[in-house]
């Protein structure tokens, strides 16, 4: 925020002229880019369909109500499967994510030059790919069912848990580690006595947080055949059974709210 | 018992922290290491048990040369050197007892330590040591529930449970109030006497050093500039160690020091952090 | 474990206990064992509910292997046209949806901040946020595809809607956490509501809003790779086709592109956030 000298004396301006010019140009470029992107995107859009959208929406809305409550008795089993996919998937992910996090953390990796980049690549690869895509792949490889869902959730969670956990490991108090190492403890003992107690709260918080997200994600995995309540959603959509779709939406909403509540309670108890 | 020969440390940044330091310490002697911040006191202590790898020179402990030791042998050697830290360095989320028992880790196999099944002798000694430092009422408390002075007592108990020959003590009173500082210094010198332990104690407070030490080593910019009895710390010597200043008050405080008057100088915790920030610092600890 | 370890062993200190047990995490033994039993029971029942068709898995192993090895010989060319088209759709819909979503999220976010909005506006805006956050993008995409037909426009609408919920919630929380003193200081000068928002609220919230926007851009790209599965355009459609036809070489190419773009965008957004602050 420079004070400028000008003919009228000193005047205060938020930014200097050059900076303002650059900022304006930047915004202009962004607007131009967005307009261009919009045109590329809507090249093949059939606007007649779009104009019809409000009527379609009203039509669907009308068909969705009232929900078909009797359908609920067929949803308990898929709901249980959904819970299992999320929970078992999270547990499975922990077995891989914990060692990977230790290999990725700058202060515990055996080799900053070779092992760490490999672990980070694994984490990025897992994080970049949505659990639905993992499920799509696994259904194609292993066939449809719960197993594909559990593995998909696990594969996505490895990156998430691994990243947050290795960041937690990098933030531990090094003097505690030093003190335990100075007693002549072995590497495994230092891990057990100095590092594990320090990352335990973060570890528990991250796990419950991811479990909560996994509950949400596992509700839709069935759309690609990986089990759970999404499978029923897929059937109902294919048969245009909108009242059933409504009930499934309500059940998903309830599950999500419940799992968020549980996760908030558990995290609160830990901290 | 402990002999340092031309011990030298150059950090990766190029800083020469220790310049060929040679000291010999007989069994049972308590040595105070004084000097300004950045003189290399913490580095010297950490080069002895190799929390910091020395660049050159030798460390002899009871006839064993430490700088060339491989992993396993180094761990066995570390058992003989108890270390006490500036900010206590207790594992905050473990109980007091677990912190004290961690002094035995070098003697106990991994599974026993994982299950907290330490040998009966170790457990009874841990109870006895906690009693000695005055903490028998706090055995099952978590370390972060204690006060500063109590935490440092746990740190002392942990070091003693190693059954060491030598104590390496890094600024034990830097985070404590004057009264607690004196109590902690007295406790350390007393247990050294009881068990015939040698000790190297980094200390910022010259008055405390004069009061409790048998011998003083003055360090400046990585070099030993004074080595002698505490009575020899004249104004000239202090100027040589710390630089120009009016030392008369500090010297008078000497034997009958008024602890309340000599507020401890703030010690940068950054120094400890620097060791941790060395790339791969913890990886070394894990090997 | 023997030999040298024993040499410095301690002697038992007479008069002191020789055993010690760490105080358990849950003090009541009954509750503790009930918890163990519950966890064990869940694992048994939960794992039991996973029916695995082992012959199908056995058949899948070579396919899985083919997929893994495809990562070392990805095929960018034979579906090059589809990949290029899908990528175009994904990138354009990510950008436009993020911008549109943020523009909509700002009024909603201000409305969802308790210290700024009147009660009815607050309730309405919170409802929008809750609705948008509760459903997965893919579910919303299904509805939008049903309304406006297949193609990237449905994807654009989906991502915009999801962005509104995400940004508005965090923005509202930020505004609620504002430094009261600065806000009061400007209000004390007699500024109007708009001036007040412009001078007291905006400068405090702006840097974080930029950071959040970049973060959301990142998320939207990842999601744009998914919603194609239900026909909402983007590279997900290409990926879906490739996987359905067991063309793992092309699928691997698409996945590598996604990973690369996510890595680049994470790096760029990290750099920009550092620059903004």
Unreliable spans of chain C: 1-7
Tell me the Rg of chain A in angstroms.
26 Å
Helix and strand content put the structural class of chain A at: mainly alpha
Strand order across the largest sheet of chain A: 1-2
- Count of helical segments of chain A? 11
How many domains in all of chain C?
2
Global geometry of chain C: extended
CATH class designation of the largest domain in chain A: Mainly Alpha
State the helicity of chain C in percent bands: over 70%
Chain oligomer state: heterotrimer
CATH H-tier superfamily of the largest domain in chain C = MetI-like
> Mind summarizing the main beta sheet of chain C?
none
How confident overall, as mean pLDDT of chain A?
A: 85
Q: Given the helix and strand composition of chain C, which structural class is it? A: mainly alpha
- Any idea of the CATH topology of the largest domain in chain A? MetI-like fold
Ranges of chain A where pLDDT stays below 50 over 5 or more residues in a row are 1-9
Could you walk me through the main structural features you see in this protein, from its secondary elements to its overall organization?
The complex is a heterotrimer of chains A (271), B (287) and C (277). Chain A has helices at residues 17-41, 47-51, 53-64, 76-104, 115-128, 131-142, 146-170, 174-181, 187-218, 229-238, 242-270; strands at 3-6, 9-12. In chain A, α5 packs across α7, α7 crosses α9 (187-218) and α9 runs antiparallel to α11. Chain A is built from eleven helices and two strands. Chain A has two domains: 3-47; 77-270, MetI-like fold. Chain A has 271 residues and is an all-alpha fold. Chain B has a single domain (2-80, 164-286), classed as Rossmann fold. In chain B, 37% of the residues lie in helices and 20% in strands. In chain B, the strands form two sheets. Chain B has a six-stranded mixed beta sheet with strand order 6-7-8-3-9-10, sandwiched between helices. Chain B is α/β, with parallel strands linked by helices. The longest helix of chain B is centred in the middle third of the chain and has 18 residues, at 178-195. In chain B, β1 and β2 form a beta hairpin. Chain C has 277 residues and is mainly α. Chain C folds into two domains: 26-70, no CATH class; 77-276, MetI-like fold, CATH 1.10.3720. The two termini of chain C are 54 Å apart. The model of chain C is unreliable at 1-7 (pLDDT under 50). At the A-C interface, α1, α3, α4, α5 and α6 of A face α2, α3, α4, α6 and α7 of C.
């Amino acid at each position: 925020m420079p004070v400028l000298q000008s003919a009228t004396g000193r005047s205060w301006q938020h930014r200097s002229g050059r900076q303002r010019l650059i900022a304006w140009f930047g915004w202009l470029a962004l607007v131009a880019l967005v307009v261009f992107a919009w045109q590329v995107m809507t090249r093949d859009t059939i606007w007649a369909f779009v104009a019809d959208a409000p009527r379609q929406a009203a039509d669907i809305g009308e068909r969705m109500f009232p929900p078909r409550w009797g359908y609920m008795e067929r949803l308990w089993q898929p709901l249980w499967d959904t819970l299992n996919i999320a929970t078992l998937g999270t547990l499975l992910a922990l077995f891989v994510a914990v060692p990977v996090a230790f290999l990725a953390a700058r202060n515990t990796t055996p080799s900053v030059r070779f092992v760490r980049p490999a672990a980070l690549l694994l984490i990025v690869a897992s994080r970049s790919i949505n659990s639905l895509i993992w499920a799509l792949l696994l259904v194609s490889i292993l066939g449809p069912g719960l197993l594909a869902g559990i593995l998909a959730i696990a594969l996505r969670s490895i990156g998430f848990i691994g990243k947050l956990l290795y960041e937690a490991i990098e933030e531990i108090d090094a003097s505690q580690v030093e003190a335990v190492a100075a007693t002549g403890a072995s590497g495994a003992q230092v891990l057990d006595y100095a590092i594990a107690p320090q990352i335990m709260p973060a570890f528990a918080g991250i796990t419950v947080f991811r479990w909560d997200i996994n509950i949400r994600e596992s509700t839709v995995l069935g759309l690609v055949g990986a089990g759970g309540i999404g499978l029923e959603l897929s059937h109902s959509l294919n048969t245009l059974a909108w009242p059933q779709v409504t009930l499934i939406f309500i059940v998903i909403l309830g599950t999500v709210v419940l799992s968020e509540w549980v996760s908030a309670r558990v995290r609160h108890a830990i901290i | 018992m402990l002999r340092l020969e031309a011990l030298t440390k150059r950090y990766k940044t190029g800083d020469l922290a220790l310049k060929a330091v040679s000291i010999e310490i007989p069994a049972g002697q308590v040595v105070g290491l004084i000097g300004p911040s950045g003189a290399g006191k913490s580095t010297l202590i950490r080069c002895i048990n190799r929390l910091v790898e020395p660049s050159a020179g030798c460390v002899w402990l009871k006839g064993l040369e430490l700088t060339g030791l491989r992993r396993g042998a180094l761990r066995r050697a570390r058992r003989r050197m108890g270390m006490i830290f500036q900010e206590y360095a207790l594992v905050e989320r473990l109980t007091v007892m677990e912190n004290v028992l961690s002094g035995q880790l070098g003697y106990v196999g991994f599974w026993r330590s994982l299950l907290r099944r330490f040998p009966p002798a170790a457990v009874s000694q841990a109870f006895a040591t906690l009693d000695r430092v005055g903490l028998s009422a706090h055995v099952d408390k978590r370390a972060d529930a204690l006060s500063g002075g109590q935490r440092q007592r746990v740190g002392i108990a942990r070091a003693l449970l190693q059954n060491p020959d030598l104590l390496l003590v890094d600024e034990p009173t830097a985070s404590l109030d004057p009264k607690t500082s004196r109590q902690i210094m007295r406790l350390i010198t007393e247990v050294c006497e009881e068990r015939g332990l040698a000790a190297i104690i980094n200390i910022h407070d010259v008055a405390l050093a004069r009061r409790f030490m048998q011998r003083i080593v003055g360090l400046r910019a990585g070099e030993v500039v004074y080595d002698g009895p505490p009575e020899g710390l004249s104004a000239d010597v202090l100027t040589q160690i710390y630089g120009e200043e009016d030392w008369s008050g500090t010297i008078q405080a000497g034997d009958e020091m008024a602890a309340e008057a000599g507020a401890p100088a703030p010690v940068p915790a950054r120094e400890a952090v620097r060791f941790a920030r060395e790339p791969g610092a913890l990886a070394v600890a894990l090997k | 474990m023997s030999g040298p370890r024993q040499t410095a062993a301690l002697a038992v200190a007479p008069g002191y206990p020789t055993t010690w047990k760490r105080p358990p995490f849950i003090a009541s033994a009954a509750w503790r064992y009930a918890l163990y039993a519950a966890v064990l029971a869940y694992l048994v029942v939960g794992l039991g509910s996973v029916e695995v068709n082992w012959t199908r898995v056995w058949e899948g192993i070579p396919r899985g292997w083919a997929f893994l090895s495809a990562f070392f010989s990805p095929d960018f060319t034979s579906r090059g046209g589809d990949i290029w088209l899908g990528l175009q759709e994904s990138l354009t819909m990510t950008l436009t949806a993020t911008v549109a979503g943020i523009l909509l999220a700002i009024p909603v976010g201000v409305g969802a901040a308790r210290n700024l909005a009147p009660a009815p506006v607050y309730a309405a805006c919170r409802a929008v946020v809750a609705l948008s956050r509760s459903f997965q993008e893919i579910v919303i995409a299904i509805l939008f595809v049903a309304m406006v037909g297949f193609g990237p426009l449905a994807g654009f609408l989906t991502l915009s809607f999801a962005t509104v919920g995400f940004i508005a919630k965090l923005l509202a929380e930020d505004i609620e956490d504002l430094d009261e003193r600065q806000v009061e200081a400007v209000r004390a000068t007699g500024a109007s509501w708009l001036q007040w928002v412009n001078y007291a609220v905006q400068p405090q919230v702006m840097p974080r809003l930029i950071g959040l926007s970049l973060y959301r851009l990142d998320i939207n790209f990842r999601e744009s790779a998914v919603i194609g599965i239900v026909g909402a355009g983007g590279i997900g459609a290409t990926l879906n086709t490739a996987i359905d036809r067991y063309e793992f070489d092309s699928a691997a190419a698409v996945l590598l592109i996604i990973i690369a773009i996510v890595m680049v965008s994470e790096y760029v957004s990290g750099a920009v956030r550092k620059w903004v602050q």
